[in-house]
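Hello again,

I reread your note about wanting to compare the complex against the isolated chains. To keep things tidy I'm splitting this into two emails, and this first one only covers the full assembly. Below are the input lines as submitted, including protein chains and any nucleic acid or small-molecule components. They are followed by the predicted structure of everything together. The single-chain runs will come separately.
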Amino acid sequence: MSQAWRLLLMLALLPVATAFAGVSAGKETQGQQEVRIGILTFAERSDTLNTWQATADYLARQTGHRIRIEPLTPSELDKQVEAKAVDFIISNQFVAVGYKKEWGASQLLTLIPADGRDPARAMGSALVVRAGVSVTRWQQLAELNIVSTDPRAFGGFLIFAGEMVRRGLDPVTDLPGLTFEGFPQTKLLQKLWRQEADMAILPACVLEQAIARGEYPEGAFDIALARTTPGFACGVSSELYPYTALSKLGHTKSALATEVAGALLTMDANTAAAISGGYRGWSVPVNDNRVFALKHTLREWPFQTNWQRVASAAMPWFGAILLCLLLGYLHHLRIKRLVVKRTRALETEIEQHRETQRAFNEQQRQFYRAQRVLLTGEMASGISHELKQPLAGIRYLAQGCLYRLKDHEPELKSALCGVLTQVDRAQETIGRLRSFCQQPSRSVPYRVDTLIEETLALISPELKRLKLEPSLALAEVEARLDPGLMTQVLVNVLLNALDAMAGQPTPWLGISLETTDSGYLIRVSDNGCGLTEAQLSRLFFPFESAKADGLGLGMVICKRIVEEHGGKISAHNRFDYTSIDGQIGGQIDASIDSSPCGLEISIEMPRGAAND
Amino acid sequence: MIDVYLVDDDPDVLASLKWMLEGLGIRAQGFASAQDFLAAVDFSRPAVAVLDVQMPDMDGMSLLEVLFSRPSPIVPLMLTGHGNISMAVKAIQQGAMDFIEKPVDGDKLLALLRRAATLATERAISLQQSAEIQQRLDSLSPRETDVMHRVLEGKLNKTIAAELFITQRTVEIHRRNLLEKMAASNVAELAFVLSKLRLPR
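Full-complex prediction:
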């Protein structure tokens, strides 16, 4: 089409265009809006701006919108796309495909390269070596010093990496000599030229363009592992892929996309914007299936994983999990603290319990020790009493003999005197034994009701065993007494009462303490089997026991201790009758009901100790 | 020698003690329990009672109490297998003459018995005397008793007459009669006689 014709056509179309513009302006709710186009760049931002500014101006003129272009590195582009800060992106096919799934990007147009290559088969990877270097197998690459620009560069590295992976090689671990040098791409050729590297991975045609610019002599470099590609002017070592794409993002209005695409499609090779952009215009989108295949191939290769995006996608989940973990941890801490607190409380409780138990055991031990001592003493005194009687008999008889002997029997006399001496010796021995075993009592002011309660605590295991709750009627009495010895008395009396009630289905134990004129009176009553008259009369005699396994010293000890305190202990059977409503009746004549229903022990004590 | 009673619940000991005392020429009566003793003995006669402290039912100490619930010339000696001081003090306070550890030596017992016999006789006599004095006092008329009290207070006949609204002459007659009845030759002797009324313990 000649210039003149075009001018005419434009003049003819102008009113129509303005009418359209008016209509579209009328249709547009917002009228003029800002269109943001992100352009993927690896090189200098200013270069990219220089390249594309003309295109942006062209678009602005065509659509009437304000066009803003932003050169962005891959990671910046990711951020902007995520933030929906761009409406369109111009990028290599690989990146475009990458945004398809995540951000609903769709390819609107494909750029047509300046040298007129087919946009569907315009990108490839060339392995450039110095002329004369021979590389015949992909495995050989492992031994070479290879340079590349960037691991995310499509035309150079990514396409090459796809080829490697398809051959079962790892583009990183299998290439120990690989280094990334960054942009510009010509830097790699310089390194080759200066023999600082054996091979450069470059996009196809970069070498041919450099030679065309006269930077290097023809034949200075070769393409290793080159493929034959009909209709493709440059040397290439890989498959061919489509050229740069314009994509719209998911959030971009399709009306706007149509406007932009329409405007760009009006460009051709002669358009100033295309010339300054180094391309020949735009075509409808080409098939990008093979880009997908490449991406799929490379997805299994972890190098390419977009960790940042994965991380940002996982961020809420990660945050939620972290929050859960944190909450869980806090809960755990709280539980732990509670456990620690409870444990401590339990420990102190156990310790206290142990302490109480220890004190109780100690008390019991002391009690039983005192009991043993008293029993020993009482044994000794009982035995001594029992021995004293026959010894007294012997002495009386021997002395009776002495008095009856005539004076002319000196031998018999002296023998009988010897008997007396021996008897006295035996008596002394017994006396010593008794005084050795006797404990002197020490009186102190003490609360008698407290003493009774302490004694009950001492025999509480026994009470529990019988499920017995003693009925108490205790006045507050203060007196001088030996607590240890009086405890012995009470325990003996109480245990006797419990023994007497062994066969009683409903045992009853009454303890009363009242003041009297001279002091106080303790009464211990039970509803046990009671005692026969004979047993009662010999209750306070040593070695007489109503119990099968009794030693017969308990009550003797009681009597002695009570008398040492200047008191009196007595026992009598209770002849109570129980009325229908279970009330204990008063005393009635023993002849009416002659079978006793229990025993009552009375202990009358003076308030002050009789002998201090 | 006056009567000697032995109380001990152990028959063997009782018999042997009795036998020993017989060797000393003392005939003693034995009792196996406090009750037997109380049932059999005449308390108004002077005697020595050797009591065992440890006995069933009524022990020696209780027996002492019963024994001295009324005046008696009997002198008790306590025997114990193992006494303690408080018991001994109590026994002495209650009127026992001594408190001896069993078995007692014959010679010692003899000496004690002699002392106790003397004491018992004295007690019997003083009891007898106070009984007689009491009899004489009982024989006084109320008026004579009034006069006697005032005479003992050392009041003059004139004062007594004024107090009792009688003549001095009548006072003198009462005074002579009461001295006669009380077998006293003068007021000093009367005071002495009445002093013996206090019961011996």
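For quick reference: The radius of gyration of chain A is 60 Å.

B.
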